[in-house]
Amino acid sequence: MRRLAVENAQMGMILARAIYDGSGTLILDTGTVLDAVHLPVLPRLEVKDIIVQDSRVDDVIIVPLISEESEAHAVRLLHTLMDTNRGKLVDYVKLDMPAVDRVVKEIIQDFYSVFMGEINIEGCFSNGNFDFIHPVKVAGLAILLGKRAEFSRAELASLGMAALLQNIGYVGVPNGILTNLDPVAQAAAPEFKKHVEIGTQILKRQKEMDPLIIEAVMQHHENWDGSGYPGKLKGSKIGRYARIIAIASNYHALISSHRNQKAYPPPEAAEYISAYSGELFDPEFVNLFLRNVPFYPKGVSVRLSTGEIGIVTDSNIGYIGRTKVRVCFGRDGIELKPHDLDLSKPENQNVTIVEILDY
Residue 168 belongs to a domain with what CATH number? Predict the structure, then answer.
């Protein structure tokens, strides 16, 4: 299987995995042969990439750690929660918490069911659906980090619920603030910052709500160095859930394109998280993040520092940026008999990935 951006799809390619839009609706099924009807439409779909068959890497199986169906359920639920409560006073907001609990547990079950799956945290490229897709992707990444930190399943459920509901306070923010401002102006707007307080008040009114979920929603914009809001909390005074959500949320926002913000390639976004370790983010959780998130996903084409071009066959989780690559083209651009190169091996320490191609 090979992964590429939808803009780089070509006639005759065969889908190795189905394509879903930003709301989780099936668009093209596995096995579809892309033709002149599909190609003009693909770039307009609310998806980042497609996965196609490629005989050079037919042994590379790309399986998402969280199923498209689970993510779709969560996105549709957030649409319902937000749309039915938008503009209501806090006392009148009603959340279907049993449904939230079910969808979070469905995501967690995927983590325990999928063998050798890879976290699917591609960026969001839909302005209209960003506020619904973003919390779902953040919840998935947060649960991954929580699982690696040996949280119990009950803790993972609370962490996932907090991530999914982190922006429920948007229902009380003027729509123009949410849709018309670029991310920098939005983050600085006092009306936008109120979503934290609004969300906290909404959750306090829900029956039998875990106090740690409420705490995480209240603190998810706090920074490790005390420069965040609303409480300017510092270091370990910020709850664990909020510290994890802050990393996951910032990373996904960086790799997404929304409200005129350019999407950064995953390695550059990861470098940002690393650079602000100890300043914006908890260093311990940053280290956990860097060692468990695939910045070069399986199936992407890459150019090596040698000039050769290959396809990532294994993200080599645990070896930061040191993937396994199947080299397919020489430095002169001539196709080679494919051979594998493990960048984590000492003999390959001088070889680096310098560019992601077709993605």
Answer: 1.10.3210.10
